[in-house]
C-alpha cells in the first residue's frame, strides 16, 4: 500500500514529470521495509527498488516531508535506557548514535517516519515497554 507522492520530480532522461510512488511497511517477521517506484509520463524511464531497514536518505527525506515527522516516547522514563538499547539493536545503530539519542529528552526514543515509530513501538511492546507515538507539529511540507 504505497502512496502517490505529491512531490514533483523530473525525469533524468527527458525532464518530464515523474509519477512517484513510495512507502514503508512492517514485515510479518517484524522487520522494517521500504519501496519506491518512479515512472516517467513521457519516455520509458522507470525504476523500482525496495529494501529492508531504514529507507535511503533521499526517500526518507521525502517520507518525512509528505507524511510528517513522528516521535516515539516511553510512558515510563525509568524504562528509557532499556528501550533505547532495544531500538539501537533493531536499527543497527552505532554506540555513538545510541549515546547521542540518550542525551535527547528524558522520554524520547526515536524521531523519524511514522512507520519507523510504529515498528519500534511493536519491538518495544514485545519487550513489555509501553510507548506512545506523536506527530511533531508543522513538520510536513506537503
Ligand atoms: Zn522521461
Order of helices and strands: EEEEHEHHEHE
Strand content range: 25-35%
CATH topology of the largest domain: Ribosomal Protein L30, Chain: A
Spatial separation of the terminal alpha carbons: 19 Å
Mean of residue pLDDT?
A: 90
- The CATH architecture assignment of the largest domain turns out to be 2-Layer Sandwich
Q: What is the strand arrangement across the widest sheet? A: 1-2-3-4
Q: In angstroms, what is the radius of gyration?
A: 17 Å
- Which ligands accompany this protein? zinc ion
Unreliable sequence segments: none
What's the story with the biggest beta sheet? 4 strands, antiparallel
Helical content class:
25-40%
Number of strands: 7
Shape: elongated
How many independent structural domains? 2
Structural class of the helix and strand makeup? alpha+beta
Report the top-level CATH class of the largest domain.
Alpha Beta
Count, helices: 4
Could you walk me through the main structural features you see in this protein, from its secondary elements to its overall organization?
- With 142 residues, the chain is of the alpha+beta class.
- The protein has 2 domains: 64 residues, no CATH class; 66 residues, Ribosomal Protein L30, Chain: A, CATH 3.30.1390.
- The chain is 31% helix and 30% strand.
- The chain is built from 4 helices and 7 strands; from the N terminus they run ββββαβααβαβ.
- Strands 1-2-3-4 form a 4-stranded antiparallel beta sheet. Strands 6-5-7 form a 3-stranded antiparallel beta sheet, covered by helices on one side.
- Strand 2 and strand 3 form a beta hairpin.
- Helix 2 runs antiparallel to helix 3.
- The longest helix has 13 residues.
- The chain is elongated.
- The two termini are 19 Å apart.
- The mean pLDDT is 90.
- The chain binds zinc ion.
- Zinc ion binds next to loops.
Amino acid at each position: 500500500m504505497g502512496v502517490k507522492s505529491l512531490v514533483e520530480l523530473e525525469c533524468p532522461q527527458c525532464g518530464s514529470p515523474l509519477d512517484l510512488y513510495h512507502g514503508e511497511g512492517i514485515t510479518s517477521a517484524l522487520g522494517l521495509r521500504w519501496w519506491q517506484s518512479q515512472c516517467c509520463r513521457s519516455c520509458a524511464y522507470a525504476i523500482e527498488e525496495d529494501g529492508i531497514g531504514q529507507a535511503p536518505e533521499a526517500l526518507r527525506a521525502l517520507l518525512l516531508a509528505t507524511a510528517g515527522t513522528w516521535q516515539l516516547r516511553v510512558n515510563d522514563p525509568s524504562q528509557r535506557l532499556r528501550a533505547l538499547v532495544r531500538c539501537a539493536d533493531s536499527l543497527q545503530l552505532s554506540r555513538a548514535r545510541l549515546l547521542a539519542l540518550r542525551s535527547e529528552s528524558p522520554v524520547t526514543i526515536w524521531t523519524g517516519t511514522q512507520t519507523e515509530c510504529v515498528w519500534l513501538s511493536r519491538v518495544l511492546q514485545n519487550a513489555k515497554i509501553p510507548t506512545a507515538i506523536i506527530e511533531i507539529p508543522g513538520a510536513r511540507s506537503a
